[in-house]
UniProtKB/TrEMBL annotation:
Protein's name according to its UniProt entry: Beta-mannosidase B
Keyword presence, Nucleotide-binding: no
One Pfam family from the record: Mannosidase_ig
Database matches in Gene3D superfamilies: Galactose-binding domain-like (2.60.120.260), Glycosidases (3.20.20.80), Immunoglobulins (2.60.40.10)
Keyword Hydrolase attributed: yes
Domain Glycoside hydrolase family 2 immunoglobulin-like beta-sandwich as annotated: residue spans: 195-299
The organism's place on the tree of life at top rank: Eukaryota
Gene Ontology molecular-function annotations: beta-mannosidase activity
Family of this protein: Belongs to the glycosyl hydrolase 2 family. Beta-mannosidase B subfamily.
Amino acid sequence: MALERTALNTGWTFKQATKPDSAFLPTSQFPTAIHLDLKHHGMIPDPILDINWAKIQWVGEEEWLYRTTFRGHPRDSKHTKFELVFDGLDTHTTISLNSREIKKTENMYLSYRVDISDEIKRDADNELQILFHSTFLIGRQLEKDAPQKPLFWHNGDSSRLQVRKAPYSYGWDFVPIFLTCGPWRPVYLDSYTAKIAELPVVAEVAKDLSSAKIRVSVEVEGSGAKTLKVQISGPSGDMLQEKDVLIGNSSKSTIEFDVSDPKLWWPNGNGAQPLYQVQAAISGQDGVLCTSSKRIGIRRLELIQRPLHDQPGKSFYFEVNNAPIFSQGSNWIPTDMFLPSITPDRYRAWLELAARGNQNMIRVWGGGVYEDPVFYDICDELGIMIWHDFMLACGAYPATPKFLKDIKEEAIQIVKSLRHHPCIVLWCGNNEDHMFADKYNAQYDYDDHNPENWLKTDWPARIIYDKILPEICASHVPEIPYHPGSPWGGKPAMDPTIGDVHAWDVWMKASAQYPYQWYYKIAGRFVSEFGLKSYPSVKTIEGYVTDPHERHPQSRVLDAHLKASSKSPWARNYRTVALYIQENFRIGKSLKHWVYGSQLSQAEAMSFAFRGWRRLWKGPGREECAGALVWQLNDCFPSVSWSLADYKVRPKYAYYTIKRACEPIAVCANRIEVEKSRPNEFTEAYVVRETRLQVWGSNFTDKTEEFQLRLQKIDVVTGKITWEKMINIKLPENRSTELFDEPIDELESQTVLVSASLMRGGKVLSRFADWPQPLKYLDLPRPEVVMKVQGDDVRVSAELPIKALVFEMDDDSVQWSDNCIDLTPGDEQVIHAKGLNGRQPSIIHLAVAAD
């Protein structure tokens, strides 16, 4: 009789276990979280509105009991094994079946199986109870009893280091404290005689890409299985190969398939994402006993770290199917504080947004969770590579025998469950732990390779990143590169010439925040974090600030939704938001204009970063920067944050400037100020500077392309073209190429924008407008914007230059192909607006926002 899986997703009720007179109430959904259920019954206010989170902190210090009943199988059932499967419990629990304790759990990330073959009542109701203890209080007690106090931690309560619960739930610099609990992933009853316990699938691709070997291993548990059948189906669904083997006395079998001329999986922008299906079935005397399947992509992967031709250090780039890839994308945080509320459609909305934005990689950050399986399936489909942190972030974790044992169990289970996904291209040991070890002068001898010595220091957790996790990855996923931490460049961790860096000199540099125009100065071999905060859309603000009188730039409620503290204890990051707005723009006092200014500062900053770092991808042996992952793609809460789209998945302006910067073919320009001489370091008098106009082109395709480069100097106020030049250029494949570098008069540079266009046959294929910086010095005109709407297309032009023209609609029904655009005279642009249906959008641009 085949394995039968019964979802235990109905009849659940809950109560406050620490309150004797508390009554059981039905859950709002299943899986669930305690805050969702309490909100559903009106027992707490909506946590995301106003400052309501401050009123509900008591929830995380209580115990909560969940229960349901399920019917036991008939006594004549041929199944001999019964297991309860808990895909995720948040976090410390005591599980009871029919009033008998059957399991304790203490790791949110683990899936648990409990054999209840001897406890289940046949032909009768069985009561399942899960008591959720206060992980916060347990962590506090563990910290109190710990043999060693943590040398450092950043964000949240230090007790979070003692427990395996999502760090961000303790509060982070983008979210308040929400100490959740509950059955956050499905619960099942599995009934079987024999089952496929594991189905690891590995695809090895020949160096010349002409063939692949698919190795399928099957581990069987139970009794009665006689034969194993494994089938390989192609991307179109046709069955390609099939093999049958006798199982015999062994519980493990391995079958290999040779695939000629495989259809290769490529990152987004480099090719298609064909996916193969591997299905295994075990059979006994009475037929099929269990089936299991995996969907895989066939691709060849390497992390290339080798010396560069004319720069110090080493490269750090991914090679997929022998093609060097520039990784461009963003960091991923959990997309809600209450994880069971995330639907597959919501995952898809976020990830498709990234893919449409020319992103090919996201970094699953180590302060969140290992995501739902559907998340990885969607990344496989979209060609989004994943840099995956283990869930360890910003702290000196303990290294007690029990904690290390828990980490090993967690890491093994996680990498085994995800190893078949072609999207995962790197496992990373932690987020910023090495960096903080350097900052706090931990007893960290990089050259000491004896793990026993590490355990005797004030940073014993090094053994997790430098021994335990790499050994687990080498054993279970040897085909996936492992990186000790992020950032990590060896000694020191933030060496910009090796590994990856977090580039926070813009936004949060301790001494003074760099201007965002300086992003090109702070490159690394791979920049895995950087960003600048902005406000969410006005529509989103109106949804969570309920008092209309609080909807203004100086609002207490708005400031409360900005969770990051600055380096000064008396200040918060809203001062930094204001700094970057006021340093760069003339912005009016209304909320609408303040939101516009904050989003424009983020958009301009991200454009400078991506353009400058893609410029350093210079071809073989000169991969001086090979990746840029902005912090962050998404929000888990309606906050003032670094996200590229707000909590309601409404794209901010930066989303579009990054999309343009990351086009396969892109032209870029910048004015660089070169200091020729400085007689006295203490004064600006007699300093001689030269301003140079530099233009470069990026061709990230696999073919050399030829274009005409048109350069124009345009007076910002009059729109007059004061200089024009046409150059025939060639852009070699998969690199950026310098195209133009000449001095520009300093006074002229203050009054003209430089328009750069790549053209072919008179058609503009890529355009960029380089404006005088900072923009606040410009007296921008307000010309008429000529806008023609034809179905889902908007044709827009102007007789004078316009900076940062934004299209807006009252609802969310329109998907813009581009937004926040610059207009120059004589250059009509066509924007596709899916869902516009002939409606007229409203517009705003920088000159208007100055009021």
